[in-house]
Amino acid sequence: MERQVALVTGGSGGIGAAVAVALAAAGASVGVNYRSDPEGAAAVVAEIEQLGGSAVALQADASREDQVRSMFRALLDRFGRLDVLVANAGIQQDAAFAEMTLEQWRAVLDVNLTGQFLCAREAVRIFDRQGRDPGRSCAIGKIICVSSVHEVIPWAGHANYAASKGGVMLMMKSLAQEVAPRGIRVNGIAPGAIQTEINRAAWETQEALQSLLKLIPYGRIGRPEDVARAAVWLASDASDYVTGTSLFVDCGMALYPGFRDNG
Ligand SMILES: NC(=O)c1ccc[n+]([C@@H]2O[C@H](COP(=O)([O-])OP(=O)(O)OC[C@H]3O[C@@H](n4cnc5c(N)ncnc54)[C@H](OP(=O)(O)O)[C@@H]3O)[C@@H](O)[C@H]2O)c1
């Protein structure tokens, strides 16, 4: 990833932080986006600089068009180009369907789906302007949409989240189809249960963890680094013949584990 520049949205913690560090370890300069946690983003930048890499923290709400535009401008001001977007920022606001407010529905769709649209659109515009540079990468640019196993697994009590991730999957595939002739690769990562703040309630007690593990055939909760390694692969020329694919990083969560014992 040397001489390449990546932007990771929601890079101040969890999966995004691990992706930012892994891309930097692979040689990329990295923009670390955050919304509300400047200390988290600064810690990621410091970790990358300790590795001998370059990074910049960029504040923006990924669901706001004006802020997304300013963030990409700031990245270009600092590093001069963009090669990889990892659209990762995401939230959950859970409620039973009949109790879900329009605000909860909109908040999740705005960040998880519209935010990825806004960021991917800016990235495509920049990739098209930059053109091809085979010395850097076979592709003109790469986009990785962080989705979820819930792009295919229905999730009661989380209809807004599942709808946003199903939307991300088909946006990703439609965009991949549209821009492949221009040399842009677009893929998704569908993580299973990864130990971060977003799902703390699912792993912080032994009881919750044991119940979660029943859904994971491989028998362990994921770590952000598990997703980060997949992101580096999808961002690099090692995956140059891959576009429009959801890579499930879930240790079998999407394999209907309830059918293990004859259903
Ligand atoms: N953990 C899992 O098991 C799991 C499974 C499947 C999919 N995912 C997906 O993976 C992605 C990352 O989740 P995570 O587990 O790492 O969660 P996390 O630890 O809660 O981190 C979420 C990140 O998103 C950022 N963010 C939230 N709203 C934002 C906005 N409007 N604009 C910019 N950044 C925003 C947060 O930034 P601030 O803290 O600075 O506000 C934070 O950096 C999400 O899309 C999530 O849906 C996670």
Report on the structure:
The protein has one domain: Rossmann fold, CATH 3.40.50.720. It is globular and about 50 Å long. The chain has helices spanning 14-25, 38-50, 65-79, 102-130, 159-179, 206-213, 224-235; strands at 5-8, 29-34, 55-59, 84-87, 141-146, 184-191, 246-249. The mean pLDDT is 97. It starts with a strand and ends in a 14-residue tail after the last strand. The protein has a seven-stranded parallel sheet with strand order 3-2-1-4-5-6-7, sandwiched between helices. The longest helix has 29 residues, at 102-130. Helix content is 42%, strand content 14%. It is an alpha/beta fold. It has seven helices and seven strands. The chain binds NADP nicotinamide-adenine-dinucleotide phosphate. NADP nicotinamide-adenine-dinucleotide phosphate (NAP) binds at residues 9-10, 12-16, 33-37, 40, 61-63, 88-91, 111, 115, 146, 148, 191, 193-194, 196-199.
